[in-house]
Design a protein that fits this description.
- By secondary structure, the protein is mainly alpha-helical.
- The protein has one domain: Antennal chemosensory protein a6 (Orthogonal Bundle), CATH 1.10.2080.10.
- 61% of the residues lie in helices and 0% in strands.
- The protein has 7 helices and no strands.
- It is globular and about 30 Å long.
Length: 120
């Protein structure tokens, strides 16, 4: 789940930076906001415009190792991964089942995931 955070698509060399200034900490600190984003990603709830863009972009970002992510998106993604792995493994697992049913990305990003465990 390398880019569960702030990645949105456009056909240029990087995803749009339209939502780069979203307060990721505020989302992670609010169970209501975090659950809203996760429910959107899982198809269990309504999506905000930025949640919808994330949902559309996430598969590409995972497949291509976030190569089109801006620096802020990569930083936000790292923060989200660290939070989910360490503080919300239940949500991490649900997202992994949806976006990585064959464990391809979990294996590809194993070192990165292991590196953030315990560093919340």
């Amino acid at each position: 789940m390398a880019c569960v955070a702030v990645t949105w698509a456009r056909p240029e060399s990087t995803y749009t930076d339209k939502w780069d200034n979203i307060n990721v900490d505020e989302i992670l600190e609010s169970n209501r906001l975090l659950k809203g984003y996760v429910d959107c990603l899982l198809g269990k709830g309504l999506c905000t415009p930025d949640g919808k863009a994330l949902k559309e972009t996430l598969p590409d970002a995972l497949e291509h190792e976030c190569v089109k992510c801006t620096g802020k998106q990569k930083s936000g993604a790292d923060k989200v991964i660290r939070h989910l792995v360490n503080k919300r493994p239940d949500l991490w697992k649900e997202l992994a089942v949806k976006y990585d049913p064959d464990n391809i990305y979990q294996a590809r990003y194993k070192d990165k995931i292991d590196a953030v465990k315990g560093s919340a």
